Amino acid sequence: EEVTLQLKWVTQAQFAGYYVALDQGFYEEEGLEVTIKPGGPDVAPVQVLLGGGADVMVDWLPSALAAREQGADIVNIAQPFKSSGMMLTCLKESGVSGPEDFKGKTLGVWFGGNEYPFLNWMSKLGLPTDGSPEGVTVLKQGFNVDPLLQKQAACISTMTYNEYWQVIDAGLSPDDLVTFKYEDQGVATLEDGLYVMADKLKDPAFVETMAKFVRASMKGWKWAEENPDDAAMIVLDNDDTGAQTESHQKRMMGEVAKLTAGSDGTLDEADYKRTVATLMGGGSDPVISKEPEGAWTHEVTDKALQ
Amino acid sequence: MRSILPVLTVVAVIVALWYGAAAAMNAQWVRDQAARAGTEVSLAQILPRTMSQERPVLPAPHQVAKGLWEGVAGQKITSKRSLVYHGWITLSATLLGFGIGTGLGILLAIGIIHNRAMDQSVMPWAIASQTIPILAIAPMIIVVLNSIGVSGLLPKAVISAYLSFFPVVVGMVKGLRSPDAMQLDLLSTYNASRAQAFWKLRLPASMPYLFASLKVGIAASLVGAIVGELPTGAVAGLGARLLSGSYYGQTIQIWSALFAAAIVAAALVGIVGAIQTRVLRRMGMAR
Amino acid sequence: MAEGLATGRPVIEARGVGLTFATADGPVHALKDVTLRVMKGDFVSFIGPSGCGKTTFLRAVAALEHPTEGELRVNGMTPEEARRRRAYGYVFQAAGLYPWRTIAGNIRLPLEIMGFARDEQERRVRDVLQLVELDGFGKKYPWQLSGGMQQRASIARALAFDADILLMDEPFGALDEIVRDRLNEALLKLWARTGKTIGFVTHSIPEAVYLSTKIVVMSPRPGRITDVIESPLPRERPLDIRDSRDFIEIAHRVREGLRAGHSYDE
Amino acid sequence: MAEGLATGRPVIEARGVGLTFATADGPVHALKDVTLRVMKGDFVSFIGPSGCGKTTFLRAVAALEHPTEGELRVNGMTPEEARRRRAYGYVFQAAGLYPWRTIAGNIRLPLEIMGFARDEQERRVRDVLQLVELDGFGKKYPWQLSGGMQQRASIARALAFDADILLMDEPFGALDEIVRDRLNEALLKLWARTGKTIGFVTHSIPEAVYLSTKIVVMSPRPGRITDVIESPLPRERPLDIRDSRDFIEIAHRVREGLRAGHSYDE
Amino acid sequence: MTLVFLALVTWVVTLVLNVRISRSAFSETRIGRLVVPAIFGLTVLLVWELLVRGLQVPTVILPPPSAIGARIAGSLPVLWGDFVQTFVKGALSGWLIGCAAAVATAIAIDRSPFLQRGLLPVGNFVAALPIVGIAPILVMWFGFDWQSKAAVVVVMVFFPVLVNTVEGLAATDRMQRDLMKTYSASYAQTLLKLRLPAAMPFIFNGLKIATTLALIGAIVAEFFGSPIRGMGFRISAEVGRLGLDMVWAEIAVAALAGSAFYGVVALVERGLTFWHPSQRRQR
Ligand SMILES: Nc1ncnc2c1ncn2[C@@H]1O[C@H](COP(=O)(O)OP(=O)(O)OP(=O)(O)O)[C@@H](O)[C@H]1O
Ligand SMILES: Nc1ncnc2c1ncn2[C@@H]1O[C@H](COP(=O)(O)OP(=O)(O)OP(=O)(O)O)[C@@H](O)[C@H]1O
Ligand SMILES: Cc1ncc(C[n+]2csc(CCO)c2C)c(N)n1
Ligand SMILES: [Mg+2]
Ligand SMILES: [Mg+2]
């Protein structure tokens, strides 16, 4: 059976589990022939899924729910990431030491579906994001951490496993920085989950295939957690751009392992509820306007974990 | 070659300016770092440090040269870290796209000058098509093509063709209309068919315009191929190198890829120029 | 081949033809009320002050301009139809050679378009190059030729194929007397041999009288015909006919007509 | 202003001038061993068969071509230097008007370049337009004019400023006899008044004789001078001088020279 | 399926209609000139609508024009703000600077054979730097706001205008140049009175191509970092949340603005190069 997986971002240790499962033959053992398509800043995985370019994709719950509201009937079938790796990283010298210092500062944010947790947080803090002196100025930050290094922004969005370390690699020490983890701020949302089209799930054979896929993938993830360095090397082998460095991927794997720890692939309903609450609570422009229904299912994980 | 000396002079001037700019732009970081470490740096200390940063604002020429050299000669050309490998991937899409785009552009231009309905209806929409931000619809093109089973080289070539056909249309429409009244009247007295007028008058008369367009078109093709690489997951090609370099803030990698792309572009434009010189000379038009 | 005699069939018939150009600062009346009938085998010269509409009339006959008034028929059809039947050989006032073709290539152009066989093309190019005394210049490009040579090349181009109606706009203007005499003779021979109908613009009164069976004198602004002179000269014309009484008389009449035309001007 | 008399100072001096064009199929010898001296205030006509090098010689004088042999001095300097001192007014064989300028604009062009005052420009444009009988056409664009009118516009352009040396390449080729006569007279008057040195290419023997103080007869391939005729005619020349004995004699001599030149050809 | 069929029928019918109209005298009139492209455009929209509905294309892949229209009507203030940010501030200023720089460089190149041989190859090289590569760098150098977008536009429009201008400056014929020589005109005079006017048709080719490039450049540059307004920002942000109707609304604005921009340049061209055969009588 052939399965195509669309990733949310470029090939990196963030997706180590899938590459490991492919490389270690876990998929093959299940009788699956898996193709992994890397994503990138210009890939909207949902579109690929709907266009028939993939059977299953990795996406974040906020953007998945937003897509559902736009009429894309996608369903979460598994949640390998237990915790959120998002945080805001600030330069100490810019005068930020706590959320109360944000007022009047310029903050870099990822858009394209990743902005919701941030916007919710700001509305929780009561800070308008329109650039007024009472609030914060928001920049749509690009792919890298330059805005912080160039001091174009006081804080930028980073992932614990990636951009943060790029800042460190650039020569700043952790002492120069102040970080705000979304987990700690109570605005964490569920990140990398696996999603498929709802109507496909009506076919028991597809559910069966997905169960095999999830089982093999989770095996990959657990293998990666136990052998982070080897997993990083496998990711490196699969990077066609030749841009990744070994040290960075090994470190990323270490951090990612912290986020997948504690998940067997099953979506934790409480986490889900919390994410939904966060998203619906977002100030004037909430991401989703009504309680989503049927946005997730345990059908696949139940079968996979039998 | 007579042009070696002038080129070298200009390059030398640029390199000198570049070093100056690199020193100026990278100095801030050195000073910041020193301040964070609580030390003082003298000017003499700053200078060398601006030339060897790992993530400079502007890498020094020798850093880029080194990056290029390692990318081109430092690897097996089949290696994923080889610029030759990535360059070839981009080049093949560029050439295919340029072929499609130029062909389409010339055909459209021919249609536009011969058919009023086309002139009046296609031209405005050809213009409109070019104002659509390609990066925005590239993913959709890729998705759509993907869903009908087209993937690999072709989607990239389609985007590259999309960018290159327009300069060709604009230039060729003007060129094909450039013969003066008397030249057209002459054919008219022969009752030459439109096809004959095209081959014997309009096409030769359009040559200077065509080549100007082709130069712009082939550079646009390359940009298109690079843009097309981004939404395909940027797995390989100079575009992927640019993007991943940018994503990881590896300035030197960006600049190396950028220069590789520019070298390819300059070479392509140069080839078109060489063909132009030969064609015009054969046509007795190079005086 | 043909007899080379006026057979009585009208080839060009203009009735009350007028032509007005619209320009940014008002209309220009180039032709007004031009009525003229040219028979098959006629050699008609048009003579008149600069800017009187000679070129415009020739262009109208060849369907390159469209009269805004009156009626113009060529071989009993509209000029447009006649053009479609390839009735015309046209020598423009400026040489108008294509710069990307050699001289031979320029002359070959109409032959290619009309689908002559390859070797027939070569033969004809050679012949007409010889006729206009340009042998040896076939491989040169137009800008490598002197003004007079370019003009001759453009004459050769129009003679290379067998158009029924030859329209020539000051073809010999840039040639010296001697070449001009020789080409005049050659043209007369060609005309006698082929029975073509020829419309010819010139500023030289002797040339007009020497060549024509019919001389049309025009006056400017708006261009109209002031005199049409039927020549009593025989069709066979040695060069020394120019000293005959008849010749001098016609020349005088033409000159008078021209002068009268100029006075309109003021 | 000036007396309008040949003052004895040589203006153009050619010594053994040769000029060879390199073309794809071998060199073309356009000029060979041309030796000529033109004095200040001379009116020199060049006459010769088509393609004999008249244009080439004029261009060489104006520093538009460079002799490959011999020496050419203008006003005692190289042609290049003379050009830089704006010694020349040049009328090209083809009109060469700029299509983006009106007729008046084209005539104004040299005046703008040489920095004449605005109202002086207007005055001169008006004057020369009148001189070439184009008043009322100043606002038209070149392609709206007949061939002869374009040629006159280009003459006007060269006359608009006061060049010492006027080089005219078949300026009156496309004009009818009557306008031509009038312009000939006007040109003589201008020459007498200003004492310009004029180099003039023509194919009309009467025109050459009527206008010139010196007639240069050339023969082709390679272009060389076969005869230089100093005219015994007075500088004051009414039109009917053309019936005088002297006139007819010179014309005869020129015609013979031309004919001899043509026989070289074969 | 019937909708798909209807789409095909619409296509054929209007195509025939358009050919008819453009052959008729009506197309010569001012209105006729507008009607033909309008009909063509409406056809495209109608066929699009019918196909999207007929084939049940998900709106997150391609929304129907009706939905896009509704979105445009509902978000005018946002669209206007984005337009000002991207088009007026970014594209227009960049276009002006870039075109001026290109023409100036072309003249410098033309002026000096040394520079011509030295600068043109290097110019080709520098100006052919791909936008996706330079955009992040320029954002890093010039900041997030419109200045960096204008800089991207400058680089993008430079090359087409340069190439066309260089080509155009070479497009005079010999007699025209010789005339200037006999006047011993200075370089500047020859340039101003001969070379530039003669080059105009070419330069305008470059300027026209540059109009569309400017818009693309300004929009794409926003993908690499921007304040939270601008057409490119909106597009990338909305793609992420699958607000495709908004994406297409922005695209529609871009197309309109771009066409208008192009149209204005084409009008100026018509006014300045009326003498060129391509602008005169067309047969
Ligand atoms: N395209 C045009 N637009 C406007 N006016 C024109 C156009 N062509 C010719 N004319 C005008 O029409 C008149 C007649 O021009 P035409 O070329 O027929 O003269 P011509 O008799 O051939 O003169 P010449 O002997 O000088 O060649 C002139 O006044 C000219 O200005
Ligand atoms: N640029 C050139 N390249 C090559 N050959 C040339 C060039 N210009 C002129 N010639 C040749 O030089 C010779 C003299 O040309 P030129 O134009 O001086 O003749 P001309 O006496 O002015 O003739 P016409 O009376 O026909 O104008 C001709 O044989 C011509 O073919
Ligand atoms: C344009 C753009 N910028 C940032 C992200 C955010 N993002 C989502 S997953 C991921 C990987 C983390 O290493 C990152 C950075 C995005 N989706 N698109
Ligand atoms: Mg005429
Ligand atoms: Mg000549």
TrEMBL record, chain B:
Domain of life of the native organism: Bacteria
Main location (coarse class): membrane
Bilayer topology annotation: Multi-pass membrane protein
Domain ABC transmembrane type-1: 83-276
Keyword Repeat attached: no
Compartmental location: Cell membrane
PROSITE patterns for this protein: ABC_TM1 (PS50928)
Matches recorded under CDD domains: TM_PBP2
Key words of the record: Cell membrane, Membrane, Transmembrane, Transmembrane helix, Transport
Transmembrane segments: 88-113, 125-145, 157-176, 209-232, 252-275
Keyword Cell cycle: no
InterPro entries linked: MetI-like, MetI-like_sf
Family: Belongs to the binding-protein-dependent transport system permease family.
Protein name, UniProt field: NitT/TauT family transport system permease protein
Native organism: Cereibacter johrii
From TrEMBL, chains C, D:
PROSITE patterns noted in UniProt: ABC_TRANSPORTER_1 (PS00211), ABC_TRANSPORTER_2 (PS50893)
Organism the protein comes from: Cereibacter johrii
Pfam families reported in the protein's UniProt record: ABC_tran
Entry annotated with the keyword Transport: yes
Name of the molecule in the record: NitT/TauT family transport system ATP-binding protein
Chain coiled-coil ranges: none
SMART domains: AAA (SM00382)
UniProt keyword terms in alphabetical order: ATP-binding, Nucleotide-binding, Transport
Entry keyword annotation includes RNA-binding: no
InterPro entries according to UniProt: AAA+_ATPase (IPR003593), ABC_transporter-like_ATP-bd (IPR003439), ABC_transporter-like_CS (IPR017871), ABC_transporter_ATP-bind (IPR050166), P-loop_NTPase (IPR027417)
Stored PANTHER family: ALIPHATIC SULFONATES IMPORT ATP-BINDING PROTEIN SSUB, TAURINE IMPORT ATP-BINDING PROTEIN-RELATED
Domain (ABC transporter): residue spans on this chain: 14-241
Family named by the database record: Belongs to the ABC transporter superfamily.
Molecular-function annotations in GO: ATP binding
From TrEMBL, chain E:
Principal location class: membrane
Compartment annotation: Cell membrane
Domain of life, per lineage: Bacteria
InterPro entries: MetI-like (IPR000515), MetI-like_sf (IPR035906)
Lipid bilayer topology: Multi-pass membrane protein
Gene3D superfamilies the UniProt entry points to: MetI-like (1.10.3720.10)
Key words, A-Z: Cell membrane, Membrane, Transmembrane, Transmembrane helix, Transport
Residue ranges constituting the ABC transmembrane type-1 domain according to the UniProt record: 102-272
Residues that span the membrane, as ranges: 34-52, 92-110, 122-144, 150-171, 202-226, 246-268
Protein name: NitT/TauT family transport system permease protein
Organism: Cereibacter johrii
